Amino acid sequence: MPTGATETQQGSGSEIRARYRFKIFLRENNEDVFVAGFTTVTGIEKEVNVVDWRVGDENKTKKLPGFTNYPAIVMERGQDAGKTLEEWFDLVQNTAEGSGAAEYRKGLVIQVLNRDGTVFKQIFAPDAWPSKYMAGELDASSEDPLVEQVELQHNGWFYEDVGAAISTASNTSG
């Protein structure tokens, strides 16, 4: 089972506020476990497909709402010593290959931080799982840090009450 990143691996609470604008937690058994801070999160979108419906015997259509699509959530950050996301991806891979029996879908909690490090919004995506993990590009001639990227599939997202987010954030901000 993956373990959460510690403050030592991620840095102190003030370092997290300075370097990252998003805190990521995994929700298991109604408990949020801190994973990491991220600099970039994309894919927080919802789109309803438009269905053209023919109106009777007339030569025109009426537009109706169809299925709702949720693109993958993509998160990026500088590489650190934590292995939680890589272990989660390995769990999905082992399950797909038939050698894993553990539940790989987890609740994803994204806390959006203000510049002062307080929680501004909290987003919850139930049943999330990683479909792609990139450890970063290795280039000996570059001084750029390794950038870890993970792509997460999910079945939708919604905003959660920020009051609950503040009590969770105080447990990890140092």
What is this entry, summarized?
By secondary structure, this protein is an alpha+beta fold.
Question: How do the strands and helices of this protein lay out in sequence?
Answer:
Elements: H1 7-10, H2 13-19, E1 22-28, E2 31-38, E3 40-42, E4 47-54, E5 61-69, E6 73-78, H3 84-96, E7 106-113, E8 119-134, E9 147-153, E10 158-160, H4 162-170
Antiparallel strand pairs: 1-2, 1-7, 3-6, 4-5, 6-9, 7-8, 8-9, 8-10
Radius of gyration: 19 Å
CATH level 3 topology: Pnp Oxidase, Chain A
Question: What is the average per-residue confidence, as pLDDT, rounded to a whole number?
Answer: 81
Number of domains: 1
CATH architecture classification: Roll
Helices, by number, come to 4
Q: Structural class per helix/strand content? A: alpha+beta
Tell me roughly what share of residues is in helical segments. 10-25%
Q: What is the percentage of strand-forming residues? A: 35-45%
Q: State the order of secondary-structure elements, H for helix, E for strand.
A: HHEEEEEEHEEEEH
The span between the termini is 25 Å
Major sheet: size, sense and barrel closure?
8 strands, antiparallel
Number of strands: 10
Shape: globular
- What is the CATH class designation? Mainly Beta
Low-confidence stretches: 1-17, 165-174
